[in-house]
Write a structure and sequence with these properties.
Two copies of one chain form a homodimer.
Chain A lengths: L1 E7 L1 H4 L6 H12 L3 E8 L3 H14 L2 E5 L10 H8 L4 E3 L1 H13 L6 H5 L2 E3 L3 E3 L7 E6 L2 E6 L3 H18 L6 E10 L3 H9 L9 E7 L2 E10 L2 H19 L3 E4 L4 H12 L3 E5 L5 H6 L9 E7 L2 H8 L3 H7 L4 H15 L3 E7 L14 E7 L4 E7 L4 H21 L8
Parallel strand pairs in A: 1-2, 1-3, 3-8, 13-14, 13-15
Antiparallel strand pairs in A: 4-5, 6-7, 7-8, 9-11, 9-12, 10-11, 15-16, 16-17
Helix pairs in contact in A: 2-7, 3-4, 10-15
């Protein structure tokens, strides 16, 4: 089955926003065994949108359209669809009810511009998998059209929950499609690409994808087949091969985040964690607490951004900072031990470094980061040199610190000294 | 002058690669005062490319085409252009010479597939600003076509060095184009949309855009004109009108973030800040430290995720937590005062709440958040009810806490009690 994608928005035509929706839709459709033949992007412009719609109808079996469904003046999709396909707008009661429930629950007043969103082209079918996010679909002769909001999260949700299943239910491809994501941290992109080349007996049917997600790298496997058990077995075999090649750099497969993996490890063992953050400024705590239920193992932490706070809150001796600097091995060790003591946790992790753009020196250039992990048995520390912007240095430091906890439980390499 | 962009490549259709070239070209053209009316992406597919070319020729004064110029089998652009525009390929000696020099300098052997790149459509003009990177241009009736390599660095270089100057030398559009972003926090989308409708004397020439960026809302203004001072004056006037309508909910214009605005306010007054975070888990500290130089005013903070740590680190009485709960007005006030004392800062802000999805109760449902601000004169606190996912509740709480500092200096409404 062949189809097209149309994305709508002045912000895409002006280069203000990157077209994440086209990219996501193309990736998901391709991974599902469908073929995308064209992506068209137009501004909030009636004539251009109408032309794009008409052209897509002559070439495709499905068309995904994103953007222009909101309540503001430049949201013109419904109107243009009505005109172009000769399907007059009428007030859809189901959609209106939906909008009313949504705004009431949020204490927003109903308005004419919000009601506008409920005026739908004739025979439109509302897509609303969870009662919060809405889009609609139309069948125009042999072509299925799907209209989705331009907000990336909403678009992705509807794409996965409604659009893909609907297209696939009308396609004659093999009925079972499964994806798997293998998440890697600590190897750079060329290294991952080289590893992928080494895959023996690479199954022709498994579609491999490679998605750098700084500072992680993700490999995706997609396979279509006749039945669930066979597909799962083949994916398991391929995942095993990849894990053999990549080793402990694989930290998760599926939807797991680093902090979820670490959290599960702590919870399973009934252990607790605290963090002492300098250059990451709270990012590690923020990541840990993004996981529901993290209060079971995460006790808290300190953000010791000033030297004085390192002394006051973590008992780092002032002379130590004076002699070695706040970004140094002795300080990170004391930070890890200090936070562990103060919060009375099983593990204490600490990060101190120079995130930039200022503050670097020849001996300690921007990107110099020390990480420390204190446990009952021992304290381990190490120096890193990270690259990139201030935010990238912070992010890499935070993920590396979390990865240390994972590797601690994994009994890994330099942390196996425990 | 209006034009289109066509990007070519199977990797774009499969979602393996994000379309950085279309994004770059659109941004550069728009910033140069030109209008992009459509972006079309096709795979390495003769028929689709030919159709896209023909369609673009009927609508545009210029067309930028990227990709398919290389030496591999799937590089089909030259051939398709020759067929579609009826301009037979012939060996371009200048281009051949160019390629020979290039490969010799790199110790590569000349081959038939490399020579293929020198077979150009009739009357093609080679673009080679520095003798390394090559593309070509064609004039087809009233339309100027530019063919560029798909490698982003090369494409960008040719775009800036050759394509933009050439288009601008033939364009009659107004030379100056300026954008402005006005950032709003604390008003929901429908409220912002309603306010935009009220704009008096809305200049037809100023293009308004509205971009929700949870939890912020951004309004963009774009204006084209003859000279910088006039354009700036008109944008200033419109910004003033919007600020009058929206009031103190406007927290920044331009590229400023909330944390940068707050940071500048603190720095200007030589004042310092510390934060006590419960449900935000470190997010406020993380945001504050994303700003370079934030160590000038941000001393640090504590993440008191457990009740015990609220007692130990911030001197919150255990009986207070027992009586009112950790998510309560007395506790947030003590947290703010406690962190201010511990870090010896001018201001202390505190957040405690229920981010969900678990932990809510009928009296204190998920999304209940208390914010407190302690200064020398006084401590102020307030209860909020935020909506959305765990991450959204955290984000809204963090931005609201930062906004309190802004409003404190602003001398605003409920914080004016100071």
């Amino acid at each position: 089955m062949q189809g097209e994608i149309i994305t709508i928005g002045n912000e895409l035509m002006s280069g203000r926003t990157m077209d994440l929706n086209a990219w996501y839709a193309a990736g998901r459709l391709t991974a599902s065994g469908l073929v995308v033949t064209r992506i068209t992007t137009v501004g909030d412009d009636p004539e251009k949108l109408s032309t794009a719609l008409r052209e897509a109808l002559t070439h495709s079996q499905f068309v995904i359209i994103t953007g222009g469904l909101g309540s503001t003046e430049d949201d013109i999709t419904n109107e243009i669809v009505a005109d172009t396909l000769n399907r007059p707008l009428s007030l859809d009661k189901e959609m209106l009810e939906q909008i009313k429930l949504y705004v009431e629950a949020r204490g927003i007043e109903m308005s004419a511009s919000l009601e506008k969103m409920a005026w739908m082209p004739r025979d439109a079918r509302v897509l609303k998998p969870d009662g919060n996010v809405c889009g609609f679909s139309l069948v125009e002769g042999p072509v299925r059209l799907y209209f989705l909001p331009g907000v990336p999260d909403q678009m992705r949700f509807l794409m996965d929950e409604c659009v893909l299943p609907d297209i696939l239910s009308h396609s004659k491809t093999l009925p079972v499609l499964r994806h798997r994501v293998i998440k890697i941290y600590g190897l750079n992109e060329p290294a991952v690409a080289e590893i992928l080349k080494k895959l023996p007996d690479r199954s022709e049917k498994i579609v491999l994808g490679f998605y750098p997600r700084f500072p992680e790298n993700h490999i995706t496997l997609s396979l279509r087949g006749h039945d669930e058990p066979t597909v799962t077995l083949e994916l398991d075999a391929m995942e095993k091969e990849i894990r053999n090649l990549v080793g402990a750099y694989v930290f998760a497969s599926g939807n797991d985040s680093m902090e979820a993996v670490v959290g599960r490890m702590l919870k399973k063992r009934g252990m607790t964690l605290s963090v002492a953050e300098s250059c990451t400024g709270g990012l590690i705590g923020n990541r840990l607490t993004n996981v529901p239920g993290s209060s079971d193992y995460f006790q808290g932490g300190v953000v010791v951004y000033s030297n004085q706070s390192k002394v006051d809150l973590l008992s780092v001796p002032a002379e130590m900072i004076e002699r070695w600097g706040a970004v140094s091995d002795p300080v990170v060790r004391q930070m890890a031990e200090g936070v562990r003591e103060r919060f009375k946790t099983d593990l204490g992790i600490a990060v101190t470094g120079i995130a930039g753009p200022e503050g670097g020196s020849p001996e300690k250039p921007v990107g110099t980061v020390y990480i420390g992990l204190a446990a009952e048995e021992k304290t381990v520390s190490r120096k890193y040199r990270f690259w990139g912007t201030r935010k990238q240095v912070k992010l890499n430091s935070a993920v590396m610190a979390l990865d240390w906890v994972r590797r601690y439980f994994h009994g890994d390499s330099f942390l196996s000294g425990f």
